[in-house]
Structure formats: C-alpha cells, structure tokens
Amino acid sequence: MLDVRQLSVNYREVRGLDRISFHIEPGQLVGIIGPNGAGKSTLIKAMLGLIPAASGAVHYCNCPLHQQLQKVAYIPQRSQIDWDFPITVWNVVLMARTRHLGWFRRPGAAAKEIVKAALERVEMYSLRHRRIGELSGGQQQRVFLARALAQQAEIFLLDEPFTGVDAKTERIMLEVFAQLKREGKILLISSHDWGGALNQLDRLLLINRGLIADGSPDRVMTPENLCRAYGTNLQNSLQPDWDNTLFC
To answer: Which residue ranges does the record assign to the ABC transporter domain (predicted)?
Structure first.
C-alpha cells in the first residue's frame, strides 16, 4: 500500500500543501483534480522528495518511499522536459533501464526486448529512430509513457499526462492504465481536465492545498465539494465536457 500521511509543503512563508493524507492499494487508479495552484504537482513532487516537505511522511509497504525510488516511474509535466535535446525515441526509453544496468554496462538482449515491448505497447515502435523533438505532442507523451513502462515499476506517478494529446494517445494511455491496474500496479495521476476519463478512476482526490474530498468520482464531484475547491470562480473553471447535471 502507498500511504501518504499529513504531508505539508511550505513555499517561504506560504503553505502550499496542508496536511494531506490518503492511501492507495495495489491495482487502483487514483486521479488528482483541483484548480490551478491547488498543489497537484506539488503533491507528486513532495511524495518523491523532489521538493522538501515541511511535515508528514510517505511510505510504501511500510518503508519510506524515498528509499525505494527504483520502484517508482514518474512522468513530469511537459513544460519540464527539454524537447530539443537531440535524442531518439529508442534511447529515451532505453534510459529507463540504466538504473537496473548501471551507467557503464551496455544493454543486453533482455533490456532491448523490454524497450521494444514498451514501445509496441504505446504504438511507437515504428518511430523508434525518430528524434523526440520531431514528434507530435501526443507521440512525445506516449514515448515517456513507454519509458515509464520500461522501468517495470510498481508505482506510476503522472503529472498532467493528458495535456495537449490527441484522441488516439488518450485512448492508448487509458488502455495502458487499465492493463497496469490488472497487473496490480499503483497509479496516481493529476489532471485539470479528466473529461470522459473520470469513469476510469477508482478514486478521485479533490484538492486545493488541502484535501477537500476523497472517494469515487460521483461522490467527489458534487456542487458543494467543487465550490469549496474552486470558490466563486467555479463556473469559469469547469471544463465544458463535464456533466452539467452536477451543477444544477
């Protein structure tokens, strides 16, 4: 079980994340939603130790998560990736095996087979020799999902993976997430626009610095909870493909 306990983050004198607690069982897909600046990315980064926590702890199987990062696959927001770096699709995914092989060992047949299978799973093997900067936004996101798959991780943390992707990529990603659930993986995914993908989630975390609601999407996405999260800007913040009956 992935267990987050009373996690808080401070930015100088401002509380960016306030005592958030939840747990995720193996085989669950959990989404994070909230307004801009709510702390969605902060939560994921603090869980990984990429930014310091003011208080709280994150454990996996009763051990600190930061001591088990080899079991975690993380896909950051697109804005944090240098898409101009001269590297091929194949080598981006092959880098996932570096942690297992070490920097000075050449990848063998087994590592190459893992990379090939990951690229085939996201329908990107035919473009394996293409430079990453030459791909569309959706194709780039699929490459980084393949990289996460090649890590053979137990926990998948994805920050805004649906931003700027096409319908094909969204379909492939959701199919991969469903398969990972069947394999008993833990998935925590942030998004500002879940749209029709809401029904794929086992649980949804609604946050705005603190945890406002945690449960099935239909129990979380109520007018009362959304008003607490989005405040007076609720109507301007809602995505047009959300079910309007929620807000009557």
So the answer is: 2-234
Q: Give yes or no for a contact between 85 and 132, defined as CB atoms under 8 angstroms apart.
A: yes
The sheet with strand 210-215 has its strands ordered as 72-75, 155-159, 186-190, 29-33, 203-208, 210-215
pTM: predicted TM-score of the whole model, two decimal places: 0.89
Q: Which residue did the predictor score with more confidence, 248 or 99? A: 99
75/191 Cα distance (integer angstroms): 13
Total domain count for the chain?
1
Q: How many CB atoms lie within 10 A of CB 184?
A: 11
In a domain? residue 247: no
Which domain range does residue 106 map to?
2-241
The predicted model gives 74-98 an average pLDDT of: 91
Burial class (CB in 10 A: 0-12, 13-18, 19+), 12: exposed
Of the chain, the percentage scoring pLDDT greater than 90 comes to 77
